[in-house]
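My main concern about presentation is that the manuscript never shows what a single data entry looks like. The format is easy to grasp once an entry is in front of the reader. For illustration, here is how one protein appears when written out as sequence plus structure tokens:
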Amino acid sequence: MNPSRKFIDFLVSWMGIVAVVGLLIGGGLALWANSYTNDQVHSQMASQQIFFPKPARWPQLASEAGQQVLTGQQAKDYADIQILGDMNAMSGGQTYAQLSSKSRADPTNTKLADLVATVFKGTTLRGLLLNAYAFGTIATIAGWSALVAFVGAGLLLILSILGFLHGMGKLRLPSEKA
């Protein structure tokens, strides 16, 4: 084997090993981020003691009726179906901004002012729950990233080992003459 080819084999193989270490570290951090973020979403949601109504008021939530909201996806379902559905039912589909404008134009209408306050609270809670969903989604992405990093590290390790074997003359490519 050509000495410069042997050097290149070893150089590329060592670069592969360095990349393997980087992928293992990155994968480990992504796995930690997945676990930490999921734990945070779960503990924060558990402390709020939010439960889906039983029986479900909205057909889309029938499978979750009576369950506690503990995951990002459940937080999204509760926010987008339960809270938004309830707010739309009581406000005729009007948003907080629309109701607030009407209330400012009619400051003596206490019923409208109460509705504005209720929709504001619902909108705020909905936004907070959607943040839990966003962090749950980030945790899922981190988990998939960890898996990809670990698979990549495994493949690069195999290729690096093959490169070292080739550099030592213990492995020949089909295009190389014996």
Notes: Residues 3-167 form one domain. The longest helix spans residues 110-167.
